[in-house]
């Protein structure tokens, strides 16, 4: 058994006692390879599930009580009655008293309301992901809860339903406004593959992510994402306003910014003031880059994928303005290294993580140099993680 799974099992037994039929579970975190800030603009995104994630040990209880403990949140054991959740208003105010438990309890409530009935259980969790760093530890915890409930109570849940209900839990119960990508890839990701997800239709396909001679470096700036939430909401509002202005005098309105083809954009964007023009241009060009990136991955053309990483970051820095000093510093440091094919921020921005594609033999030296340069420029000690892709609970069997 993996050391984290063992830790979760030990914590379960130490906290709630031995006995019963405990099982262990894993749900990955995710890195978005490309397609940033377009999951709420109807675009295509290309994330992969990571071998870093969240582990649980869990077993049923017959008294209708849900008990939760996390090795990562000492002293914050959570207790709720399943029946009580059914009548609790689905709003952050009702869930805030549960602390981190708002995520798993929100998922329980959403599953119950959608007819995936369950009951009491106890669960101990521990994660190998940095939390609050843009690798989606929150979605990982939500999908983990879906996996636990569907296993313990035989709920016939598929990946799409798990992702949708987890997203609703994050929005309504935890009060975090986000797109569907995180929950989706944490639910259906697979080892050796990325997920090309159309966020408008939720159609998805697996794209081989065979890095060949390359390694994916995950570079955690360790800069707290203080601005991320407010700026995220601001960007969403700006995109909604840009779409409204573009559609104002159109007979057939675009359903989303990403429905605008790059060649249509110069005409469509004429209606926009300069700042909104840049936001919309990022959405349109990023969506096009995502398609090109999937094509490059199918051809195993990592050099092209690296170039697209660079172009994506530049657009997020200049047009979308969500990078900031630390992400720009770490990305520039990565790009300056021999053997690095490209680098970009990943996640919401303003801190959190960036990713780089590096030639395998060069990745170690590159990581050391990046850490040194980044520290000299910003004063932060970064964390550089080597992660591989991993199977998610609802990824299904390979065809
Ligand atoms: P991100 O999803 O980028 O990691 P968020 O702020 O969205 O950051 O989610 C982090 C929150 O998710 C934590 O503050 C905590 O409430 C919850 N969480 C994630 N992982 C765990 C864990 N292993 N144990 C307890 N809570 C967790
Ligand atoms: Mg999150």
SSE layout and pairing:
Elements: H1 3-16, E1 23-34, E2 44-60, E3 65-70, E4 78-81, H2 82-87, H3 92-95, H4 102-113, E5 121-127, H5 137-153, H6 159-173, H7 181-188, E6 193-198, E7 204-208, E8 214-220, H8 228-247, H9 265-268, H10 274-298, H11 302-318, H12 325-335, E9 340-346, E10 353-359, H13 363-378, E11 383-386
Parallel strand pairs: 3-5
Antiparallel strand pairs: 1-2, 2-5, 2-6, 3-4, 6-7, 8-10, 8-11, 9-10
Q: Tell me which CATH architecture of the largest domain applies here.
A: 2-Layer Sandwich
- Strand pairing plus helix content: what structural class? alpha+beta
How many structurally independent domains? 2
The helix/strand order is HEEEEHHHEHHHEEEHHHHHEEHE
Distance, first to last CA: 27 Å
Radius of gyration, in angstroms, nearest whole number: 21 Å
Number of helices: 13
Structure characteristics:
single chain; binds adenosine-5'-diphosphate; alpha+beta; 399 residues; binds magnesium ion; 4-stranded antiparallel beta sheet; globular; Alpha-Beta Plaits; Ribosomal Protein S5, domain 2; 7-stranded mixed beta sheet
